[in-house]
Design goal:
4-stranded parallel beta sheet, binds zinc ion
């Protein structure tokens, strides 16, 4: 028994209750409250649609640079938990979410066969303030399950952007312009899966995907715990 487990027991990411010694992950009471996004989803952005193979209205209008993506859980079932993961020092939730995402999206990852998982970077200032990047913690946990390496050294966030949900569409485009800088030669990466906690407007994933493709990556996908609007 690891002494750290006694001092810092694992917490259920949904209710934040400390799990009994030797137990980890979502507690039995919360397991039924965790809702996966089921049924046909937009091939490109993962939004639920009415029939298989459909591309949603937003993807038709937006011309996103990424090739496809998946979000696993409904926003309503995990939004409070994601807030704590990001802002209330609950980086340990990422271990549980990483396992769950590897299980729920394992077949999809197997089909994509990415060369690397790339967590959406945080700006240095925000990283120092928060002490961790939840997307990196999540990518590490997924990697531990599926064996795809994490390449968090490829890109850097060069601007400390205003949260995307606080600005309108035009503002988002200006906000994200030159927000990321590719730091390494990426031409050997054919396929990359970006990892983040939540897909909100798609503009962050879109900008990051665009710079990676401009630098020579062939295909860029994303995987997130959840997405807005479901
Ligand atoms: Zn719970
Ligand atoms: Zn779509």
């Amino acid at each position: 028994m690891n002494i750290l487990n006694l001092l810092y027991p694992d917490r259920c990411p949904l209710c934040d209750t400390a799990r009994p010694v030797k137990e980890t992950g979502v507690c039995p009471e919360c397991a039924k409250k965790l809702i996966t996004i089921k049924g046909p989803v937009c091939e490109k952005c993962g939004r639920p649609v009415t029939k298989e193979g459909e591309i949603c209205y937003e993807c038709i209008a937006e011309d996103f640079s990424f090739d496809g993506g998946r979000s696993v859980f409904t926003y309503s079932s995990v939004s409070d938990s994601i807030y704590r993961l990001k802002y209330m020092n609950r980086s340990a939730y990422a271990r549980t979410y990483g396992k769950l995402l590897a299980k729920e999206a394992g077949d999809w990852l197997e089909w994509i066969k990415p060369d690397a998982l790339v967590p959406v970077p945080l700006h240095k200032k925000r990283l120092i303030k928060r002490g961790y990047n939840q997307a990196k913690e999540l990518a590490d946990a997924i990697s531990g399950e599926v064996g795809i390496p994490v390449a968090d050294y490829l890109v850097r966030r060069s601007k400390n952007t205003v949260p995307q949900k606080l600005v309108d569409k035009k503002g988002r485009q200006i906000n994200m312009k030159k927000a990321f800088i590719v730091e390494e030669n990426v031409v050997s990466f054919k396929r990359i899966v970006l990892i983040d906690d939540i897909f909100t407007t798609g503009s962050t994933i879109d900008s990051l995907s665009r710079v990676l493709k401009d630098a020579g990556v062939k295909e860029v996908y994303f995987l997130t715990i959840s997405r807005a609007g479901v």
